[in-house]
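Example 401, ligand guanosine-5'-triphosphate.
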Amino acid sequence: MINKLLHGEWIHRILNPAVSEIQLHAKLQQARQNMPMPVFWLLGKTQSGKSSVIQALTGSSRAEIGQGFRACTRQSAVYDFPNEDSAFLRFLDTKGLGEADYDPSEDMAWCRSQAHLLMVVVKAMDHELDGVLSATRTIRAVHPEWPVLVIQTCLHEGYPSKASNHPQPYPFAEDRLDMRCPADLARSISVQRQHFKALGAQFVAVDLTRVEDGYQPVHYGLEALWEAIEAALPLGLRHMLLQNRLQSGQLNDVYAQHAYPHVMGYAVSAGLLAMTPVPAAGMPLVIALQGKMFHSIASIYGLSLTKRSVYEVVSAVGVGGIGIGFGARELAKLIPGWGSLISGLSTAAITYALGMTLCFYYAQTQQGHAFSAKMLKTVYQEQLQCGRELLKARFTQNPGS
Ligand SMILES: Nc1nc2c(ncn2[C@@H]2O[C@H](COP(=O)(O)OP(=O)(O)OP(=O)(O)O)[C@@H](O)[C@H]2O)c(=O)[nH]1
Ligand SMILES: [Mg+2]
């Protein structure tokens, strides 16, 4: 009986949230103070390849990145991925570096407790590095705790001829520029690394080309870039970002691919809300956020969110779905600290699984395929498992710590 009531209430609240957008936004801000969103600060001259790095890491298109940036200081802009509402990763792009006497203090003030990884982007053959070096030095002096990753781009500009393809296997691993690396390029890369070494930097060399450039692979060195990021900041971001390109089978349609990072973002936010000590208000907030996620998925599929669709998905999942969330919250009271992490991860995984199940539901509906409640339940169970795996690192490592 209680289960049935809870169930009905859940469906009702998804469609009619008990909290306003403003309240939800305020609570999320509060939750993020305890567990801040990871921020990558991209520092580099104009045209050094900053947007290309974002593109390669997130899979966003140039247009999406261009539209997604909003100014945050006089010289910098911020890009929340996948968007402001469902962001789980933030990029800061410093525009002013091309100009003489760039003073990073305003950007630093804005970043204060925000940046977690300083990515210095330089073209591999560029030797006018004074501006970038001095900005890095200033930032480093104030924030020695931020890891510095120097990303050396546009490698092919140092290849002996236009016809040369990328050297394989990848010869640019730190301090081991081997014989396959073209001589001019190797020299240039080493000189750059010497300059930044005193600043405690790590290095990675990439060539993030466009398909029409004709190089293979298009994103050369991306693997090494991810390894360097994960080593500096072990938050599991690589899996959280790449899963959308690895989804197979029934969740492989373009809409699901597009919805995936949004689902991930809402899942992280729901987990954060569940972890924040806001007595009694926790669950309505989480459900309001799930409601927002449902609306967002529906609009990606170009379908409207009907009571029926919510009912079918939530019914198939069963009260067991939210039961885990409630159970974990109870547990959280018994085991302070640990409990809230379990609760955060559980709520995030449940939200993730719900979102992906709704994607499956819409994909099947759209393609006119028959499906049963049992199938929905199976998808949910699989995605719950998957969500737990994907989000585990995010909820056990705090970028702020
Ligand atoms: N081949 C190759 N081209 C690159 C690489 N990085 C950037 N480019 C190209 O260089 C140009 C500038 O790259 P962006 O990523 O837009 O550089 P940016 O630093 O964001 O530039 P601004 O936003 O203007 O400051 C584009 O035409 C890219 O396609 C790279 O690693 N290899
Ligand atoms: Mg750019």
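Summary: The first strand starts at residue 39 and ends at 44.
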